[in-house]
Amino acid sequence: MKGAFKPNDRLKIRDLAERLGTSVTPVRDAILRLVQDQALVLRSPRDIRVPMLSRAAYLEIRDIRVNLEGMAAARAAEKATPAQIAQLEALLTHNEEAMAAGNTALATELNQIFHFKLTEIADMPVLGDILRRLWLQMGPLIADVYGGAGRTMIDHHYPLMDAIRRHDSPAASIAIQADILLASGPILERIDAAVHAQLPEALAS
Predict the structure, then answer these.
(1) Which residues are within 8 A (CB) of 2 and not within 5 positions of it... i.e. 6 or more apart?
(2) Is 164:173 a contact under the CB 8 Å cutoff?
(3) Range with the lowest mean pLDDT among 84-88, 92-96, 99-103?
């Protein structure tokens, strides 16, 4: 979800165990769980990869997010306390700073935290669990385009914040939906580029 791994990255169980300071068994169990959640693909016991979403799969996830995150943003606008609004503002400020510093990994992580904070403020834990599974699948793809997409990934957070400060639920819903839809442009371009890159390999085989 944080974008530490990108689409088509290959994961090695032993390397991950060393990195996490644990044994191979819990890492293998976690990988199998992530395969069930469609966050990883198990091509063989020695070939575990982060998948590149197909265009159809991404569009389905995007449309689900538009509806569910729109609902969460509307509810968050109703419920947000001054302290929670300040937390969202701080996340947005830190995201701007990370982007300005060229720290794409941190900016990607802060973007993800911002989106989940809306669900937390909305007090909708079931919806949060659903979104977490969706972000598991698309997090690597978002991270892959975040740096190159520029302000496309963050501009609509500002009208969203304005709506939340006014406790304007419809405007908050519209703003988060616009954010998701606008960001889909660079993401779809990345998916299409990956498909075109694979065509010569497929023809050669």
Answers:
(1) 105, 108, 109, 112, 139, 143
(2) no
(3) 99-103
